[in-house]
Structures are given as structure tokens and as C-alpha cells.
Amino acid sequence: MPNYLCISSDANHAYYVGLMSFRIYRNSNEMKWLDRAKQCKTLIELWAKEGSEWNFGQKLALLQAEELYSTGNFESAYVSYDKAISLARSHKFLIDEALSNELAGYCHLSAGNNAAMNYFVSAHRNYIDWGANAKATSLFHFVYEGAHKRASSWGR
Q: Most CB contacts within 10 A, which of 3, 66, 91, 105?
């Protein structure tokens, strides 16, 4: 009989290591991080295909979005972020919905797209609904301070 706790633990590890590795790659441009992230995405892809699309579909879509963002394919990344958000919402994975909204916000923000605010507001609401009040407050301060800085630079 398979050890489902171990599989779940391995899947979560691969998911979060993948997300972190894409982020580190964007900051460092070191290929080892992109390679590591792709390996993690491949594992989640396998679990989604052979295990449960219901449990892993939104995770796979988010990793795909992060890969597209990391490689500069913003338009396709936006589609994948929206897919991750939609799957997480329909499957009732609130934390994945929050994280997908937040990461979509960062992607849009880095592209100078005003849609970022909508994603951050949704992420904030998701974090509050999930009970992650400290995370919601942290995100609020990030958005508020960023908006304040942009507003103070207008007219210069």
C-alpha cells in the first residue's frame, strides 16, 4: 500500500521548491535554478496526470505560469495564472488561489500592467479568508507603500 502522506509531502516539497527556484532564477539568471524549477514542475505534472488533476491542476498551472514569466513570455503567463486561479477557486484550494493571485500580481507589476492591483486585492481577500492575517497585512503594506511611492513621483 502506498504511503499517501509521503506522496503528499513530496508533492508539496516539489511545488514550493519549484516556485522558489523560479523566483531565484529571475533574480540571479543562474540556469541551475531554472533547471531545478523545471524538474519540480515535471514532478507535479506527473502527479497531476497519473494521480489527481483535482489536487495538482492548479499547482501545475501556477508552475507553468511562473516558468513563462521567468522566460519572458508574459502574455502566456497571464493566461496560466488565470487558469491556476480558476482551478484553485473551483477546487476550493484557498491557499493556492491566494498564492496564484499574489504571484500574478507580481508578474503584472513587473510588466508595468495596472491589472496587478486587482490580483493583489484578490490575494489579500484570499489570505484574510484563509486566516493568514499576518500575510494579508504584509501584502497590504507592500501594495500601499508601492502605490504611495508611485503617487509621490507623479508630476516630476
A: 66
Q: What is the pLDDT of residues 57-116, one digit of tens each?
A: 999 999 999 999 999 999 999 999 999 999 999 999 999 999 999 999 999 999 999 899
62, containing H or E segment: helix 53-70
Burial class (CB in 10 A: 0-12, 13-18, 19+), 77: buried
Residue 10 scores a pLDDT above 90: no
Confidence of residue 5 (pLDDT cuts 50, 70, 90): very low
- 50, three cell numbers: 497519473
Q: What's the rounded Cα separation, in Å, for the pair 98 and 156?
A: 35
Distance CA 2, CA 38 (A): 26
- List the domains of the chain with CATH numbers: 4-153 (1.25.40)
Residue pair 58/84 in contact by the 8 Å Cβ criterion:
yes
- Would you say 46 and 55 are in contact if contact means Cβ atoms under 8 Å apart? no
Closest CA to 124 of 101, 149, 150, 93: 101
Task: Please report, for residues 66, 69, 80, the alpha-carbon distance to residue 106 in angstroms, rounded to integers and kept in the order given.
Answer: 10, 10, 14
pTM of the model: 0.89
The cell 515535471 sits on which residue?
Answer: 42
